[in-house]
Amino acid sequence: MALAVLVTIVGAGASASFAQTSAPPPNAYRPEIATPLQAAQELIRASKFDAALAMIRQAEAVADRTPDENTAIDRMRGVAASGAGDLPTATRSFEAVVATGRLEPADRAKVVEVLAQLYFQAKDYPKAATWAAQYLKDGGTNAEVRWLRIRSLYLADDCASAALELRAVLDAEARTGAVPQLVRLQLLASCYVKLGDNPGYVFALEKLLAHYPSKEYWADAIRRVETRPGFADRLYLDVLRLRQATDTLRGGTEYAAMTQLALAAGLPAEAKRVSDQGFASGALGTGADAEQQRRLRDTAAKQMAEDEKQLPQSAKAAAAAPDGSALFNVGFAYASAGQYENGLAMMEQGMKKGGLKRPDDAKLHLAIAYLAAGQKARAVQAFGDVGGTDGTADLARLWSIHAQRP
After folding, report:
1. How crowded is residue 218: how many other Cβ atoms within 10 Å of its Cβ?
2. Co-location of 20 and 110 in the same domain
């Protein structure tokens, strides 16, 4: 699913402080140049930009101007034109200033930064990106210019370069423990969508889940896992468990399906709990399937009552079994019924005993049980131990993200 990304265009224009640095020093130029430029400076301070441009034209009318005088005129014209909204004149003037090669490094950085901002404001994104790159190459320290470059690349449809730059920024922030900004993650996700880079998009989506979770993001992430080629059908109950945990179960159909699958897995307590939630939320118990759903809930309640009586005997038999599969399954049933102390102990013993048919499934279920018991740190560690190429590791990664949320 493509994610829509809203990018705010911010044009810096020209500030009064910048205008002040453009003023000609006393006695630096001939009076017929200096006087109108000084007047233009005062008009700029008063935000009278058209009048300032008129004064600058008086200076331009002077013949035989020196290179320094031309630079002063160009710079002041750039400031005034920027304030007046005449972006072509402003950028042309500032480019002429830079082209002289006569600016001190710090002064040049100011002009180059303004050029990047003005071209962005003018929606000339390729040139905005070029000037922002020049600013960074020259050692400019304003981090927002790099962000401007990234947005410019994106808006110029150079998503490959934008993603590369943005990924570098986010990776650097991650190393310092900084929380990435929402708009930057959204922009990265949008870049990867436009590029058709699914692994890249999943990376961005999982970062969004970690820092800015929403039902939309969770539904998208889970859908991508379960529709991935090679995903095992047996994991559908685990998909529904994750949807339930993230509040993304899709109506009565999935509540009923989860109830049935939990019953089939020998977990009636889980089936009863899911069914009760479905009825409490209004997802179950209405419409044409209401009677069938009520019968399903009754079946879950009946089997749960029977299971409570049989579990102690099942635990004894499982303890005597040659491998740990039965012991693990009984422990999971106990944990699903909320008896975490007994259940987790049996599951751990079953894992140690070995012989489980699907070890990664077992690791996933043990981690889910840890999380249900409120043992978040153990759950996260256990999710990290889950392997498999048929969807178990993918689900575990999403579960781990969910578990680490406050």
Report:
1. 22
2. yes
Q: Which two tokens stand for residue 254?
A: 């999935």
Instruction: Tell me how far apart the alpha carbons of residues 70 and 54 are, in angstroms, rounded to a whole number.
Output: 16
Q: How far is CA 371 from CA 218, 354, 383, 396, 404, in A?
A: 18, 22, 10, 12, 10
Please report the pLDDT score of residue 102 as a whole number.
86
Residues 102 and 179 in one domain: no
Is residue 23 predicted with pLDDT exceeding 60? no
- Distance between the two ends of the chain, CA-based, in angstroms? 26
Which range marks the domain in which residue 203 is found? Answer: 162-212
Write the burial class of residue 62 (CB in 10 Å: 0-12 exposed, 13-18 middle, 19+ buried).
middle
Q: Is residue 59 one of the residues assigned to a domain?
A: yes
Q: How many CB atoms lie within 10 A of CB 83?
A: 22
Asked if residue 19 has pLDDT above 80, the reply is: no
Residue 34 lies in a domain: yes
Are 332 and 369 spatial neighbours (Cβ–Cβ below 8 Å)? yes
**Total number of domains in the chain:** 2
Q: What percent of the chain has pLDDT over 90?
A: 89
The DSSP secondary-structure symbol of 177 reads: T
Whether 36 maps to a domain, the answer reads yes
pLDDT-derived band of residue 181, with 50, 70 and 90 as boundaries?
Answer: very high
- Inside any domain, residue 250: no
Residues 170 and 80 in one domain: no
Separation of alpha carbons 234 and 303, rounded Å: 22
22 pLDDT more than 80: no
Average pLDDT, the chain: 91
Does residue 278 carry a pLDDT above 80? yes
Which positions ≥6 away from 170 have C-beta within 8 Å? 180, 184, 185, 188, 207
Q: What pLDDT score does 376 carry?
A: 97
Closest CA to 193 of 385, 405, 358, 3: 3
Q: How far is residue 58 from each of residues 45, 206, 266, measured CA to CA in Å?
A: 19, 60, 91
**CA nearest 395: which of 243, 250, 193, 186?**
243
Cα dihedral across residues 358, 359, 364, 368: positive or negative: positive
Q: Which of 192, 212, 232 is the last residue of a domain?
A: 212
Place of tokens 């920024």: 169
Give residue 21's pLDDT band: very low, low, confident or very high (50, 70, 90).
very low
Confidence of residue 29 (pLDDT cuts 50, 70, 90): confident
